[in-house]
Amino acid sequence: MLKRLAFGATQWVGTPLSIGIHTLFFIGIFGLRFFGVSTDSILLILTTLVSLEAIYLAIFIQMTVNRSMESLAEVGDDIESIEEEVKELGDDVEDISEDVKGLEKDMDKIQEEDEEDESATKMTLEKIESGLQKLLADIEQLKQK
């Protein structure tokens, strides 16, 4: 609860409403002179109240600064974690890139082997075709005899 009060007080002090209330307060304090309060008493009351306000505001501001510093430390930790994850991701990307290069080489080898197999298959088919043509020619000659 005190932390919320400190944060709320530091937020409120920086508003136009705060300036207006402080101005009315100072006018009211000095207006006490018209009600017969001595100047020395007015200055004593004013000095005491302003000093107390300054002390509490300084404490509240320091509490807010401490809270902000804790938040910044947490953000710093988060940034370090993210940097580590990005570095690990970069390493993973490098590994994947190397794997892709290896796969490309394997694909090239497979294509070359397929081309060689295709060439060998063509040659075999050509030999078979040639052999069949010879057989057909021989059969035709046998039919004619």
Question: What are the SSEs and their pairings?
Answer:
Blueprint: H1 2-13, H2 16-31, H3 39-144
Helix pairs in contact: 1-3
Please, could you describe this protein's structure?
It contains 3 helices and no strands. It has one domain. It starts with a helix and ends with a helix. The radius of gyration is 47 Å and the shape is rod-shaped. It has helices at 2-13, 16-31, 39-144. The protein has 145 residues and is mainly α. The mean pLDDT is 86.
Descriptive labels:
92% helix; mainly alpha; 145 residues
* Helix-strand pattern: HHH
Spans of at least 5 consecutive residues with low confidence: none
Count of beta strands = 0
Radius of gyration: 47 Å
Sheet-strand content, in percent, reads: under 5%
What is the molecular shape?
A: rod-shaped
Number of helices: 3
Mean pLDDT: 86
SS content category: mainly alpha
Count of spatially separate domains: 1
Helix content: over 70%
Largest sheet: none
Summarize the entry for a quick read.
The protein has three helices and no strands.
